Structure formats: C-alpha cells, structure tokens
C-alpha cells in the first residue's frame, strides 16, 4: 500500500527542490576519510538480516502484523510473539513490539514512509534543528544537542506508550536484549527510540539500533551522543547505531551537512546490485560511502532495495499489498 509507482520514482528527483540536492551529497571538511573495510555476507547474515526482516514487517498492515500472517515478511521470522503496536498508518507511523524467542530478544520496529514523503519532510524548511527534549534525555541538558524537528515531533507522539510496552515486555519475557530497527523515517525514529530505551533500562540490558536508508537526524552533538549511547553488536568494534546505506539512495545524504546535520558512525554501505558486496565505513559521514555519493546518480529505487536476501522495504512484499 505504501509502494511508489514507477512514475513517481522516476519523476521524484526533479520534483525536489534543487538547493538541498545540489549540496546534500557534498563532503565537508569534517567528513571521515578512512578506507572502508569489507563486510562479509556472513556478517550481514548474523547482524543485519534479522533487523532488516523486522523492519520489512513494519510496512505490512497493522492487522496482519498483530496476527503475524503478513505473508513472506512474517514467514521469514519464526517463533515471534506479537506484543503491542501503536501509532497508525497515517500521520503517526506504526510501530510494533514483539518477542523473538529464537534470538532471546525484544524487538521494536518502526514503519517508515515512502521515499517521496521522507524527502519532502526533510526538505521542508519549517523542520530545522531544534533542541533535543532534555526532559526525556536529562543527561544531555546543556550539551547543545539538536535534532530534526519533524522527527522529534513524530517520535514524541508514541514515545511514552512505546517505552511502557518495552518495560513490560522485558519484565514478562525476561530477555536481556532489545533490538530496535526501522527503514527511512522509521530508521530515524529508531535512533531516538533506542536512545530512550537505553536511558530507561537496567545497564545490563543490551540495546542495539539498526537503520536502513537512514537520513541525518541531528547535529554533531546528537551524532556523538548516539555514538556513545547504544551498543552495536559485534563484529564491529564500534559503539552506537548501525545503519545501512544502499548505493545511490539520496535519503542518507539529507538533510545536508551545511545545514548543521551530521551522521553518527556505524555505516555499512552496499556497493552494488549483487546483494553480496558490503563495506564498513569508519568514522562519521565517511566520504567514501553514502556521504560521498554523486548527486547526479541519485536513485530513489535504491532507497527501497533490495538490500540483501531480496529484502525490499515499503510494503510491496506484504501479502496484503495493493
Ligand atoms: C546468508 O544467508 C542467505 C539466505 O538467508 C544464504 O543463502 C547465504 O548462504 C548466507 N551466506 C553466508 C555466507 O552465511
Ligand atoms: C521455534 O519453533 C520451532 C518450531 O516451530 C521449535 O522447534 C523451536 O524449539 C522454537 N524455538 C524456540 C526458541 O522457541
Ligand atoms: C519531552 O519529554 C517528556 C517526557 O520526559 C514528555 O512528557 C514531553 O511531552 C516531551 N516534550 C515534548 C515537547 O514533546
Ligand atoms: C552547537 O553545535 C553546533 C554544531 O552542531 C555549533 O555550530 C554551535 O556553535 C554550537 N553552539 C554552542 C553554543 O556551542
């Protein structure tokens, strides 16, 4: 239901305002330049596959997620118990919480929005950087941390009920691991959700965040905060969010750095269409990965995928997709 028509995919770049795209991919002086290292398919399977599968489910209808009968996306995930959902498939994006018995984890997955929508939110001048809600993140008070206004407003609409659901899910299942995931706008929400959960849970609980097609969500202070806040799974010796950028997807390059936005570290970049070649990009906004993309080659189709294991986002693989 959220999939884009081919026509809108093709006409999208032209419909976007040029200033943002003219500079969004350019690299500023503070971009990392370290050489990316190969990230194997085995690493993809053991670290990124399950979060991607859950982020794919989040695009299916709320009823089919609740009953866990959403077709291929649900069938790929066994031994899942649905616990809670919130939001809707309109202005307040859907999220769900589930217990993954095989992985001994609680999963929080955020639905995204179609590429046209996320790019127009990002491109909307009324959504600049605003102060991070220091009442929710008390340890950040006075630290000059700013985030995308539209993302924070959207996050706040479901934050309290989501957090209550996670706390009760941890208590009822006894697991010690929370996996937060999402694609596109859902990835941006996942970073805020993961940081919130990390603040609320016992330090012994492992919280990871994995995002796909993640736009920049805040300033340098926010990027640094995320880098210290959420632990990444092995095998990367890195603390923070992990996010996967697919080839020439324009979304990870916006909003642009010249407006004060900065990515946290932890980027895994997909190099080609083979679903076999991945690299880990050291530092923040590494110029050798999505940040260095040539704007003229922007591909909105890359935002949807496939990323690996034939996973695409946007709902086209759900049983009730139109
Ligand atoms: C990764 O998983 C896919 C399917 O899930 C499988 O076909 C492939 O052999 C796996 N590759 C490695 C290296 O584990
Ligand atoms: C997962 O489900 C399979 C069959 O449905 C079962 O054999 C297995 O024990 C389950 N694993 C867990 C951890 O519940
Ligand atoms: C900030 O976070 C608190 C919870 O700590 C919440 O009650 C409040 O609504 C949030 N403020 C805004 C403006 O969203
Ligand atoms: C806040 O951080 C921004 C970078 O994100 C920087 O440009 C600005 O000077 C900082 N302001 C203060 C008061 O430190």
List keywords for this structure.
alpha/beta, signal, Rossmann fold, binds 2-acetamido-2-deoxy-beta-D-glucopyranose, two-stranded antiparallel ribbon, 322 residues, Sec_MonoDiacylglyc_Lipase, 9-stranded mixed beta sheet, Lipase-3 domain-containing protein, AB_hydrolase_fold
Explain what you see:
By secondary structure, the chain is of the alpha/beta class. It has one domain (31-304): Rossmann fold (3-Layer(aba) Sandwich), CATH 3.40.50. It contains ten helices and eleven strands. The protein has helices spanning 6-15, 18-24, 41-57, 62-66, 72-75, 115-123, 149-173, 185-200, 220-229, 300-304; strands at 37-39, 80-86, 95-100, 105-110, 129-131, 146-148, 177-183, 206-212, 242-246, 267-270, 278-281. The strands form two sheets. A nine-stranded mixed sheet has the order 1-11-10-9-8-7-4-3-2, sandwiched between helices. Strands 5-6 form a two-stranded antiparallel ribbon. Helix 7 packs across helix 8 (185-200). The chain is globular. The N and C termini lie close together (5 Å). The protein binds 2-acetamido-2-deoxy-beta-D-glucopyranose (4 copies). One 2-acetamido-2-deoxy-beta-D-glucopyranose binds at residues 41-42, 45, 309. Keywords: Disulfide bond, Signal. Pfam families: Lipase_3. This is Lipase-3 domain-containing protein.
